[in-house]
């Protein structure tokens, strides 16, 4: 009797071990895993050298520094997954941030929620401009967004001139978003985390989100399967613009001043964060969570090297090395997958 009762458990044991092994293998294959390991290792090493790096204020500064880039990297990931790129995000953020300062200066009593809504609408409009030009004109996004980078920056320069809006020009409750904390997390960082979760669920659990991956993998095949490629790519650019708008408003809350040069050069950091976070530059793979972790890694590198008193040149060099490493790893992974597919097809013949 006992032997019979033990048989199911004995039979299930190999299956359970197989499931555990499969689960471990799946974790090891995560594109975000190397980035997470690098982040933890960097933080730990810096803490050993400089214990103040993980003080309460140090952790808060790390999170605040990463918040804006995290939001921008999430939006950029949506675009890159479709085999496109948006180089205008820095200029668009500057335009939204200066608009936020101008709105508070003209209407000091305007509700903060209205400012957020208007900023996201403006960002969505700028994203729609990019998306329409890319999808209708059929011109590579690299060229289009390089042009709108200068157009948006030129508009901001003409509008702002030498004008700057400082922290004293905004309501106290708006500036408090980057000062107040919940369980040690700054409010604006919590907003960014919520956005990452929402977008991640959208990408993994909805048809439009999965369509973006299909488009990035093979646009022609996506069309044959009935996916509305033009609408989906336009959606990615608009969603990216909305997130840029949100980041622009939070930028105005986070920093002491906004003006004509706000956001200059930020687009390169954003693309780097997405690529380092495992989003394939050739499209079709990667996650917004990985992009957010990549943003946290890059901003942590800057803070860590500053804490270690390393020259700023090396900060830029390390970021460049990470980008090259991410692209090479992604390429090698693609070649390995293609080789496995060829072997599998050969065996089936």
Automatic annotation (TrEMBL):
Transmembrane segments: 33-50, 62-80, 87-107, 113-134, 141-162, 182-204, 233-252, 258-281, 288-307, 313-333
Localisation per UniProt entry: Cell membrane
Keywords tagged on the record: Cell inner membrane, Cell membrane, Membrane, Transmembrane, Transmembrane helix, Transport
Domain of life: Bacteria
Topology relative to the membrane: Multi-pass membrane protein
Primary location group: membrane
Database matches in Pfam families: BPD_transp_2
Subunit structure: The complex is composed of two ATP-binding proteins (LsrA), two transmembrane proteins (LsrC and LsrD) and a solute-binding protein (LsrB).
Function of the molecule: Part of the ABC transporter complex LsrABCD involved in autoinducer 2 (AI-2) import. Probably responsible for the translocation of the substrate across the membrane.
Name of the molecule in the record: Autoinducer 2 import system permease protein LsrC
Upper classification of the organism: Bacteria, Bacillati, Actinomycetota, Actinomycetes, Micrococcales
